[in-house]
Design goal:
The chain contains 5 helices and 3 strands; from the N terminus they run αααααβββ. By secondary structure, the chain is mostly helical. The chain folds into 3 domains: 42 residues, no CATH class; 44 residues; 31 residues, no CATH class. The longest helix has 21 residues.
């Protein structure tokens, strides 16, 4: 089943194509509908399943088993990266897109704060390590 967000993105793409066709004089192209599916945020939130503490521990303890095909030094570096990524994503509650966009300059080590860019909005502190 496709999500409402996924369908809405497709509706927008179709409308953009129709607008493009009209701008080039294609008279028999359908008129854009600006159709959007309503997103039931409450139902969406109820579907979210959080990991248990045991599942988090299991994931963390699997890190030493990763990258077994790499030489020792490379494996150690990659595993250290995974521990940092895991701590940032889980510890700060980052979304995939937020973590993917994160850069070293977004971390204030002195204030123990991570700044997460929120689209076109200004950056804001996202989490602080106590």
């Amino acid at each position: 089943m496709l999500s409402a967000n996924h369908l809405n993105k497709n509706f927008i793409a179709i409308d953009k194509l129709l607008e493009f066709l009209h701008s080039y004089g294609v008279e028999n192209a359908p008129i854009p509908t600006n159709k959007q599916m309503e997103i039931d945020q409450e139902a969406r939130i109820l579907k979210i399943e959080t990991l248990t503490q045991q599942e988090i521990k299991t994931l963390y303890t699997c890190i030493p088993e990763t990258y077994q095909n790499l030489p020792f030094v490379e494996r150690q570096e990659k595993q250290a990266e995974l521990r940092v990524i895991f701590a940032l994503f889980y510890g700060c509650g980052l979304r995939r897109s937020e973590g993917h966009k994160l850069r070293l300059k977004d971390i204030d080590f002195d204030r123990k704060t991570v700044f997460v860019e929120q689209g076109k909005k200004l950056q804001r502190p996202h989490c602080a390590n106590e």
